[in-house]
Amino acid sequence: MTEVQHSPLNGRLEDLRSEHRALDHELKNIADDPLIDDLQVQRLKKRKLFLKDSINHLEDKLVPDIIA
């Protein structure tokens, strides 16, 4: 793949990273709030984990395998 072909993947990767950072920030802000529903926190954590997995998947597509 050329760099031009990577461009949409790079854009998607940056979007996922940005959302992951935003969720991390939100989780840190609500961690000490006793009024926050535990189910809401659990959903945010699941979404964050899904984003991390998606980021790893895209990074694997962008970085070629190196055979040693």
Shape: elongated
Helix content: over 70%
H/E series? HH
Q: Write down the domain tally.
A: 1
Low-confidence stretches: none
Write up this protein:
The protein has 68 residues and is mainly alpha-helical. The protein has one domain. 78% of the residues lie in helices and 0% in strands. The protein has 2 helices and no strands. Helix 1 packs antiparallel against helix 2. The longest helix has 28 residues, at 3-30. The protein is elongated, with a radius of gyration of 16 Å. The two termini are 21 Å apart.
Which properties best describe this structure?
single chain; about 70 residues; mainly alpha; 2 helices; elongated
Summarize the structure.
The protein is built from 2 helices and no strands. It is mainly alpha-helical and 68 residues long.
How is the topology of this model organized?
Layout (H helix, E strand, L loop, with lengths): L2 H28 L7 H25 L6
Helix pairs in contact: 1-2
